[in-house]
Specification:
The chain is of the alpha/beta class. Helices cover about 50% and strands about 15% of the residues. The chain has a single domain, classed as Rossmann fold, CATH 3.40.50. The structure holds NADP nicotinamide-adenine-dinucleotide phosphate (NAP). The site of NADP nicotinamide-adenine-dinucleotide phosphate has 31 residues, from helix 1 and helix 6. The site of NADP nicotinamide-adenine-dinucleotide phosphate (NAP) has 31 residues, from helix 1 and helix 6.
Length: about 260
């Protein structure tokens, strides 16, 4: 197993990619902490993991609140004793529409959940990882960072990629690897909401790409990229932005 006894926090673990990562990590032997705001969804993932006889902690958390993030880390340490892996997966699509119609509160909320929370969660786990001189942080971003009418989201995710590269350099000497990923166009609630906005709002290319590629892919597929980056096989990779769509990345995963 690739992640035997590793303790991993997965934000947004209640549905979509986060749920797939939680289940994939559990199957690889990790002790999983599933964090999101909706208790029912994380409890459901916990039941799924326990049915596989895996160790799991489900914790309702708003990751844009620093106090709640600190509690998440404290509870994880109390339950499992350490933290080896952080997956900053939770995200929100934010407002869809021309920038002149975006309200300041919508802008701030989108930046806060997608970008600031990535900083808060990383900041909270780093002392543990730095002390043991080992750790992995995987940040979920997107290559969609130039899509009109989705500007707050795209700006936040571009920030996540740059944050990952910055942090990777800062903690390199502590043997902590930090990478960002693009998980591809996945069949999840967020993607359905974006497509519901329609061609006029978000442009034809996304729809054409989905048609060309046949179907939206399952989040279970990019979850394997997250497993790879969290595993020993990826110890040499840091400060990178890996796209699930990339042929070389698919090859790397298949070899891991
Ligand atoms: N779907 C795609 O095609 C696609 C493409 C590129 C990148 N991504 C990225 O991939 C990641 C996962 O996306 P997805 O498609 O799986 O989205 P999703 O189905 O909407 O799931 C998002 C998860 O984030 C959680 N979340 C949102 N705000 C939160 C907050 N303030 N605190 C804690 N948890 C929060 C949600 O739970 P609660 O609402 O219960 O808190 C949910 O579990 C996101 O970062 C997204 O931007 C997705």
């Amino acid at each position: 197993m690739k992640l035997q006894d590793k303790v991993a926090i997965i934000t947004g673990g209640g549905r979509g990619l986060g749920r797939s990562v939680a289940l994939a990590f559990g199957r690889e032997g990790a002790k999983v902490v599933v964090a999101a705001r909706t208790k029912e969804t994380i409890d459901h993932v916990a039941v799924e993991l326990r049915s596989l006889k895996k160790s799991v902690l489900a914790m309702p958390v708003d990751i844009s609140d620093e106090n709640q993030v600190d509690l998440l880390v404290q509870k994880t340490l109390k339950t499992f004793g350490t933290i080896d892996i952080l997956v900053n997966n939770a995200g929100t699509r934010g407002p869809i529409g021309p920038i002149c119609n975006v309200l300041l509160e919508e802008w701030e909320k989108t930046i806060k959940i997608n970008l600031t929370a990535t900083f808060l969660c990383s900041k909270a786990v780093l002392p543990v990882m730095m002390e043991k001189k080992k750790g992995k942080i995987i940040n979920v971003a997107t290559t969609m960072s130039l899509r009109p009418n989705l500007t707050p989201y795209c700006v936040a995710k571009a920030g996540v990629v740059h944050f990952s590269k910055q942090l990777a350099r800062e903690v390199k000497n502590f043997n902590i690897q930090v990478n960002a990923i693009h998980p591809g166009v996945m069949d999840t609630q967020m993607q359905a909401e974006i497509r519901q906005a329609g061609v006029e709002a978000i442009g034809t290319d996304l729809f054409e790409r989905i048609k060309e590629e046949g179907i939206l892919h399952s989040p279970d597929e990019p979850a394997q990229l997250v497993v790879f980056l969290a595993s020993k096989a990826a110890d040499g990779i840091t400060g990178d932005f890996l796209s699930f769509d990339d042929k070389e990345v698919k090859f790397l995963i298949s070899q891991a």
